[in-house]
Amino acid sequence: MSDLLYKNISNSINLSQEDFNHFMKPFEYRKFKKKEVVLKEGNYCNFEGFVLNGCFKIYYLNENGFEQTLYFAVEGWWITDIDSLINNVPSILNIEALEDSEVLMISKKDKEHLYETMPQIEKLFRVMNQKSSVALQRRILSLTGKTADKRYLEFLEKYPGLEQRLTQQQVASYLGITHEFLSKIRKKIL
Asked: Where does the Cyclic nucleotide-binding domain start and stop, copy by copy (predicted)?
């Protein structure tokens, strides 16, 4: 169960098995059913979760009441609302399981304790936050500067095989287009 997390961490830092075991202690194993909401807009986010199995969508409702998907979190990805977690403000995001899923959850308090007792963990999360910032920058540049066709191709590259696990509406929400327009793009590309 923790092998995936160990591999994920090993991309950023080196941890002995003993240190990894210490790191794992505060994590709580949780299961979420399909359509179960992990975080609802207006609530406070006090966790980070590492996806072991399954798929989540992280989204908000725009001013017209339409879902705008920020990203999908699949195996090996993390889920949280970083703004709510860091700044202790109500979340504007929703996190929902799209499949039956398994997650390792850590509270903000437990994560802070790990920072104090294991300095290399602070480095781990700093590196992860840097990678997340790069991904966010790339997502913004893609949304503001690329055609829907190119965004769709990027989606297929970034999330190989995920399209088969999602509805056309969910993919369209991620791309910022209607599902009708997505159908046209798919026909054109195929």
From this structure: 14-114
CATH number of the domain residue 12 falls in: 2.60.120.10
CA dist 57 and 74 (Å) reads 9
153 backbone dihedrals φ, ψ, rounded to 5° = -65, -40
Residue 53 included in any domain: yes
Sheet of 55-61, strand order: 37-39, 94-97, 55-61, 67-74
What is the C-alpha to C-alpha distance for residues 84 and 93, in angstroms, rounded to an integer? 9
Instruction: Report the alpha-carbon distance of residue 190 to residue 186 in Å, rounded.
Output: 6
pLDDT for 1 beyond 80: no
Structurally, the chain folds into a number of domains equal to 1
